[in-house]
## 1
Amino acid sequence: MTTERIGPPLTGGERETLRAFLDYHRATLAMKCDGLDDEQLRRQASPPSTLSLLGLVRHMAEVERTWFRRVINGESIPLVHSDQDDYQVAYDASTATRAEAFAAWQAEVEHSRRIEREAASLDVLGHQARWGEDVSLRLVMLHLIHEYARHNGHADLLREAVDGTTGA
């Protein structure tokens, strides 16, 4: 499987540009996982850290769900991988499979895309209970771009440790 990644527009409007950068980073994470089997995706490249590519995919499912469904959409739902609101559970991919992790992540990405498309504007507000503050859809999209960019840096190092692959 080869992931297609499309660069953001050079002259787009704010919402189009945010949407494109977020999708670009989503595709980057998927690309870092291309061609690897479950065992390789679970490999922890920097012990004692339990971080793995599959753990990152699982974590990003939690991030998508939290910020778009729980915060912006106000849904009262548990995390994908923890009924106890423990974000660290997602990182433990020791028994996870590509099929399970990617299905959960892709489902959350589709929910996020739908919520963003249906929002009247980037000024739509949601409540971030952990911060005790309202936040805009604009902030949520920027926050997710930041999360993906940071974790894609981790994914670069993890992938290189698995099979030597480097690059975008």
Note: The longest strand covers residues 125-128.
## 2
Amino acid sequence: MMPPQVDEVPAPPAGPGVVAPFAAPPRDRDMKGLWIGLGVGGLVLVLCCVGGVLGGGFFISFADNLARTQVADVARGYLGALQAENYERARNEYLCAAEQSRHTVNWFRDHYAASPVVAFSVNEDDVSIQQDIVVPANVEQEGQAPRWMRFVMTQEGTRYVICGGVE
């Protein structure tokens, strides 16, 4: 009988429950699936980042436009109340507490009864939202040349009110 060669692997002993003395050698994996998975994951990550940036930009733009519209509506409401000679409404609904304490309903009568507001225009695009919110309005009063008024807005509670620029 010949001794076993070094390259030969001995056969496992016969019998139940016998296991080979070593595991099967690892196989080289196909890397194609890994690269496809990484590519799809990277694409999803890029799409999420781009979507977040665009969504944030649209949200900021929407919030800015909403604020411009709201403050312009306050100026329109105030000037509309003056035009309708409803001075109590102009004072109580559209002015901040500090301006209300400075300007009584009689002040409005003294100021606007002789030359009431006959026309006005407020353009939302002219609204300045910097440190202060300023709404310019072109106002025409009876017997006077048109003039620009600038209303400084502030927020009281959940609404904007005029808190400066009242003449």
Note: The mean pLDDT is 83.
## 3
Amino acid sequence: MNILSYKLASRIKQSNPQETSSIEIMQYALNIILNSLLIISTSFLIGWLTGSLADTAVSLFSFAILRFFSGGKHLKTATACNIFSILLCSSIPHLSFLIKDHLLIINGLCIVIMLLFAPNPDVNAQISIRWYPWMKAISVTLVALNFFIHSPVLGLAFSAQSLTVISKQGRNFL
């Protein structure tokens, strides 16, 4: 992806050198976009091939939305993130039956984790601490909605995301 994003950024820069950002900035942004597209398209393809496209979409987007508000740890490389995200979001629809009888407990544990540790944003995110209570409230609300929706797919996606926000210091307890 790095090579592709560099080539794209270079071509964009060549076509309009005055009105574009530096190649490095465009490459960084294109890397994020291309990696996201790879995860989404591959997960959708696997979901379609396995007959679980709708649940794969629910898994992917619910994980991403909760992650946006709650933050969480990152894997060391983009490749590891891509592989893990694709495997996770493609597997959740096929494993969600495992938690069906324990969904209320899973939802409750996820809420406790969000209350104790969310948000846990990336150090590069530069999010003002004044937004943390809102991010926590939204994270808890998203998880709590599954008490009404009662979706094992949502429960498993939320529990996977909840595990990424756990930190040793628990500094965001309100």
Note: Residues 2-165 form one domain.
